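tokens incoming
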């Protein structure tokens, strides 16, 4: 027993060190360190968290970084936009869980906290403020591409429900004129994603006003989702009619908010992230860093 004590102690210390590494919080960066345009008076105000997973009272838009393991990172990146009806953010199930799923196929992820137009009386507007937060996020990732081993020409967006509305507004609709005021180096970069993933997207942003300029799209929804199946189907039809490469999956007997498949009993539904990985691979988005992207 005495001979085993040092080994047991070593194992205990190793497990403790591993646990400490796992518990390290993911890096978070504010998109506007001095306050978002129009939100300066609430800069620095604390966010609210319910049950450790639902976030609200967001006035400083930010990105939480979930970097792919450098051993198999391929240079692709995705800005993830959680849903929550513009009242809150389903930050874990539609944010960090999605990020870890993408990490497994070599994609670095950046989970967006955006201003919530229906959370209290802050006076935010979805198309003016929340969509601006997503555009800023795409620009931020491109500006910091070298820091994370990312190809700035392989930056996509992935939105759930209300977050899908923001993806549609940014990817499939023209960008509004920039408001007068202070601008910085990020504003010179493109906010158009290179590809888009819409997961049971809400109706805002569809039909698209600029479908011919939209990036390739992967769209998934439940066939019984009265809110968000029609926009998903309509946007798919509109994009393909405009000559945009698009793929649509509608799952039978499935309603809203199945997340990454963990909130559903159907085997096919639980595997929808595999279909996303197939689509990303077929589109050339998962090629090794430095290789050329194949033509569509």
């Amino acid at each position: 027993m005495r001979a085993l004590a040092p080994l047991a102690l070593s194992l205990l210390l190793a497990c403790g060190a591993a646990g400490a590494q796992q518990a390290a919080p993911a890096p978070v960066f504010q998109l506007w360190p001095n306050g978002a345009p129009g939100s300066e008076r609430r800069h620095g105000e604390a966010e609210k968290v319910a049950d450790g997973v639902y976030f609200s009272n967001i006035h400083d838009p930010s990105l939480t970084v979930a970097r792919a393991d450098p051993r198999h990172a391929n240079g692709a990146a995705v800005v993830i936009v959680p849903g929550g009806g513009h009242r809150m953010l389903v930050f874990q199930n539609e944010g960090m869980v999605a990020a870890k799923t993408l990490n497994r196929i070599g994609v670095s992820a950046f989970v967006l906290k955006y201003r919530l137009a229906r959370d209290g009386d802050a006076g935010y507007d979805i198309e003016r403020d929340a969509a601006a937060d997503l555009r800023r996020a795409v620009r931020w990732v491109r500006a910091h591409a070298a820091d994370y081993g990312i190809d700035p020409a392989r930056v996509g967006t992935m939105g759930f429900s209300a977050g899908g509305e923001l993806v549609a507004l940014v990817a499939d609709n023209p960008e509004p004129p920039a408001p007068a005021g202070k601008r910085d180096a990020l504003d010179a970069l493109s906010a158009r994603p290179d590809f888009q993933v819409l997961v049971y997207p809400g109706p805002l942003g569809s039909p698209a006003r600029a479908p011919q300029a939209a990036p390739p799209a992967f769209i998934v929804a439940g066939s019984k989702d009265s809110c968000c199946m029609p926009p998903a189907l309509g946007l798919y039809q509109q994009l393909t009619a405009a000559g945009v490469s698009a793929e649509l999956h509608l799952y039978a007997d499935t309603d809203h908010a199945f997340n990454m498949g963990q909130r559903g009993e159907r085997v096919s539904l639980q595997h929808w992230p595999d279909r996303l990985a197939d689509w990303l691979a077929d589109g050339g988005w998962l090629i090794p860093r430095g290789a050329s992207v194949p033509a569509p």
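note: The chain has seven helices and eleven strands.
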